[in-house]
Design goal:
- Its EC number is 5.4.2.11.
- GO terms for molecular function: phosphoglycerate mutase activity.
- InterPro entries: His_Pase_superF_clade-1, His_PPase_superfam, PG/BPGM_mutase_AS, Phosphogly_mut1.
- It is an enzyme of class 5 (isomerase).
- It is a single chain.
- This protein is of the alpha/beta class and 206 residues long.
- It has a single domain, classed as Phosphoglycerate mutase-like (Rossmann fold, 3-Layer(aba) Sandwich), CATH 3.40.50.1240.
- The chain is 43% helix and 15% strand.
- It contains eight helices and six strands.
- It has a six-stranded mixed sheet with strand order 3-2-4-1-5-6, with helices on both faces.
- Helix 6 crosses helix 7.
């Protein structure tokens, strides 16, 4: 029996649209983001997966995405667990800055290092390594055990918190996961064996 784990990055947020570093700030979805979440629900409905539990962060954009997906698959009353362990990477002093303005303020090379190195955090914020240190213990203690006992689990979260999960699931190193782009509103469907090995992976793009 395959065990199903589905990961979905939230739909486009208001700050994604404005090209701002968002982190733990709490903008909602744009109209496009709502449409992406609705489309994600339609794709999952076509697979006819019945989920046993859903997980999300404490941030509005992820929770809104999850609600729209659950409405779309006819599981609006599904048990849903929210935890800040699944929040986006904290961008510290970059939070709220337009990415072009950040380059002008700190220098293009420095901003590139903060964005694309595995273990160098921006001032007052988290690196991807720090984010993984926060996310992975929660995943291993709360989410993965439910998958491994045969439950179908849906996680709606953020680009970097999901990168941490994917790094663990796929055995990637820091450079490999940093090169992995996650599109907004696109479900990634993993089927796992009883020992947590990946049997198959499907990215539900159009």
């Amino acid at each position: 029996m395959n065990r199903i784990l589905v990961l979905v990055r939230h739909g486009q947020s208001e700050w994604n649209l404005k090209n701002l570093f968002t982190g733990w700030k709490d903008p909602d979805l744009t109209e496009k983001g709502v449409a992406e979440a609705v489309a994600a629900g339609e794709k999952l409905r076509d697979l006819r997966i019945r989920f046993d539990v859903a997980y999300t962060s404490v941030l509005t954009r992820a929770q809104h995405t999850l609600r729209l997906i659950l409405d779309g698959i006819g599981q609006a009353d599904l048990e849903t667990i929210r935890d800040q362990a699944l929040n986006e990477r904290d961008y510290g002093e970059l939070t709220g800055l337009n990415k072009d303005d950040a380059r002008a303020r700190f220098g293009e090379e420095q901003v590139h290092i903060w964005r694309r190195s595995f273990d160098v955090p921006p001032p007052g914020g988290e690196s991807l390594k720090d984010t993984a240190t926060r996310v992975l213990p929660y995943f291993e203690a709360e989410i993965l055990p439910r998958v491994l006992k045969g439950e179908n689990v849906l996680v709606a979260a953020h680009g970097n918190s999901l990168r941490a999960l994917i790094m663990e699931l796929e055995g990637l190193n820091g450079e490999e996961i940093l090169a992995r782009e996650l599109d907004t509103g696109i479900p990634i469907v993993y089927r796992l064996s009883e020992d947590g090995e990946i049997v198959s992976k499907d990215v539900l793009k159009d």
